[in-house]
Amino acid sequence: MKHALERFKDLPELIFMVALRLDREDMHSLRLTCSSVHDVCKPLFYRKLWLHDYWSEPSLLKIAKHASSIHSLKVESLSFTRYYSCMFDILQETSIPAFMDSPIPTSPSPQLTNPIQLASILSRDILEAFGNLCCFPAQFLYSICPSPRLTILNLDLVMLDTKFELNFMAKVLSSIGTLRSLTMSFCLDVLTAKEVLQILVHGCPDSLESFSLFYDRIEEPDDYEDEELYEEDAELEETVSTLLGPMMERQEPLRRLTEWRLNVNGEYIDRDTFFSLLKFLPELTSMDMPPINCSEDGSVREVVTQIVKGCPKLKGVSKHDSYRDIGGTMMIAFLQGMPVNTVESVQISALDEDWEQLDEGLEAQKESVENIVLDECTMISIGSVIWIFFYCSALEVFRINIDWLSRVTIPLDDLVIQEWASTKFHELELSVQLNEEQEEPGEEDFVFSNPMPRWTIGLERFYRQIGALTQLRVLDLRVAVERGNRGRDGLPIAYKHKTFPGMMTLEDRTTGCFGWLQLLGGLGNLEVLCGSFNLDAMLPRLEFGQREADWVVKQWPKLKFIELYTILKDMVVVYPAPVQSMLDQLPGLKVARIIPKIDILWTRK
Q1: How many whole angstroms separate alpha carbon 62 and alpha carbon 130?
Q2: Are strands 528-531 and 259-265 parallel, antiparallel or unpaired?
Q3: Vertex 361 angle, CA 254 and 342, to 5°
Q4: Within 13 Å of residue 493, how many CA atoms lie on the same side as its CB?
């Protein structure tokens, strides 16, 4: 009887099913087992693609030949033109797709389910003519016809210069019946945000589940010479407009759309326009705060009331626009206006001002909110952050990703003056400030006594709080570094140059060794440990040794990734013996150890 591996190699269908569930690295390892597996897995490497400027022409040709495998696609206008050229060359030599030789119907089908149907309406000659004029919607439609599995699409900084092109793009998007997630970002000076939003919402395919729009309204300088791209081809544009039909008018709501993200820079959207679109969004469970001007008295409450009424299933709110909703007025009013304890997710990005009343907004949702993300904030009320830990009893995910220019400092001692309300955390990302005694205790402080030295009290309470989070899978703890803090080389110090005293050290009273790693024995589900864990920064008698490595292997058996940083010396990477032993005992464990130059200059990951 054949060995199991040999029988596996003879079953391409099974190979394909297994490969579908592997990440890219594991799939690469599977491909190396034999040539037959290699051939079966090859198309799967083209499932998720980002068409950026660094792709060479031979690589783009390979991608175009495997376009039928694409599920997720991110494109930019300039780089996509090169991909279109490769696709054009390939399709000149093949009959794929079928629309290329189809006759032109007299009118478009009211219900298009795939791009080939729309392309059949326009014909190959018209698409190629517009493609040669660098019309992005035409190039895009031409290139995605061989990709019937497209489900995730990110159109980044695409060029849509006229209302005709925007209508054309909306028609193309509406024809992708497999599309589930759509992200678009572009700049335009000829249309208002109201017009853009109406066109795109009416053009969304019924299959869409997530929609994100980033629109920047720009004003061209007076001396700008507008290039009429289709001035000499007005007849061709008129033909296409006739074939595409009138602007789309949605009749039925988007019943699968649950996530809505909208960021409009440069102007507000009037309330009536936004309210008129709410009837198409009854299934929303998560949305951005709308960019509506609510400077008039009472208008904020009216907006909140209309949203709650139009989107009864709403459970998540977010704010990604740093130029609207000054002071968080709408966000806070929304949290207060929603039915009590119904909001489960709150996300705020790029906050550059203190929201002193954030905790007041969360007061009505403190027993239901499970996910709070404060992303790249340069300012935020420290009192509100601490309040979240003390009163949000359902919290499972908390991330505060501090911007490198941030003035936010959360004192560790303030976080532990009382027990945290939730022990249900699955993910925790936190940046805290240590006091001088905690960061650099003196020699006389390393003496066991009753009571223990003052510098250990806050640290021990903090580690006990962490150790009580038995469901925790991802832990990212960072020592806050003041702006302007520089090392001996004069470069800014990153959080990766710091370490949490004693957190990765086991206590040993017989040798006078402080340590609190033993308090984290409850983290048996931990998979990722990131943050300020620098081996070179560990103080004497607070180091990470073989005893600690053996403890980690035994107590954290699910660990997949850990950061134990050090400064690269002589361009040689040599893992210390304790770290190497962890790698040997935990197959698949990855250790981040080197601090590259970019991490010295910037404190972001």
Answers
A1: 24
A2: unpaired
A3: 45
A4: 18
Q: How many residues does the structure list for the chain? A: 605
Count of Cβ atoms closer than 10 Å to residue 94 Cβ:
10
Can you tell me the distance from the alpha carbon of 233 to that of 239, in angstroms, rounded to the nearest whole number? 10
CA-based torsion, 299, 302, 306, 307: positive or negative:
positive
Q: Residue 593's pLDDT is what?
A: 79
Q: What is the 3-state secondary structure (H, E, C) of 483-535?
A: CCCECCCCCECCHHHCECCCCCCCCECCCCECCCHHHHCCCCCCCEEEECEEH
C-alpha distances (whole Å) from 333 to each of 286, 291, 299, 305, 489 are 16, 14, 11, 10, 48
Spell out the alpha helix ranges (H) of 396-439.
Answer: 412-415, 436-439
Beta strand spans in 47-100 (E): 48-51, 72-76
The C-alpha atoms of residue 413 and residue 227 are separated, in whole angstroms, by 61
By CB neighbour count within 10 A (0-12 exposed, 13-18 middle, 19+ buried), where does 253 fall?
Answer: middle
Q: Give residues with Cβ within 8 angstroms of 125, minimum separation 6.
A: none
CA within 13 Å, CB half, 560: 5
Q: Give the H/E segment covering residue 40.
A: helix 35-41
595/129 Cα distance (integer angstroms): 51
Q: What is the DSSP string of 130-150?
A: HHHTT-HHHHHHHHHTT-TT-
Cα torsion 163, 166, 172, 174: sign? negative
Residue with tokens 């695409």: 158
User: Measured over all CA atoms, what is the biggest interatomic distance in the chain, rounded to whole angstroms?
Assistant: 91
Report helix, strand or coil for 413. helix
Closest of 346, 429, 356 to residue 392, by C-alpha: 346
Read off φ and ψ for residue 511, nearest 5 degrees. Answer: -105, 5
pLDDT at 404: 58
For each successive 10 residues of the chain (605 residues), what is the average pLDDT? Answer: 64 67 66 63 78 85 88 86 89 57 46 82 84 87 91 90 87 93 84 83 92 77 47 71 79 93 78 87 92 68 87 90 67 88 90 72 94 83 91 95 67 93 96 77 58 80 96 93 58 74 87 86 95 83 89 96 79 79 90 59 29
Distance CA 275, CA 198 (A): 11
Provide the pLDDT for residue 209: 96
251 in Cβ contact with 206 (< 8 Å):
no
- pLDDT on residue 399: 93
The tokens for 427 are: 């993910």
Strand, coil or helix: what is 270?
coil
Question: What gap in Å lies between CA 265 and CA 520, rounded to an integer?
Answer: 45
Is the overall model pTM greater than 0.90, yes or no? no
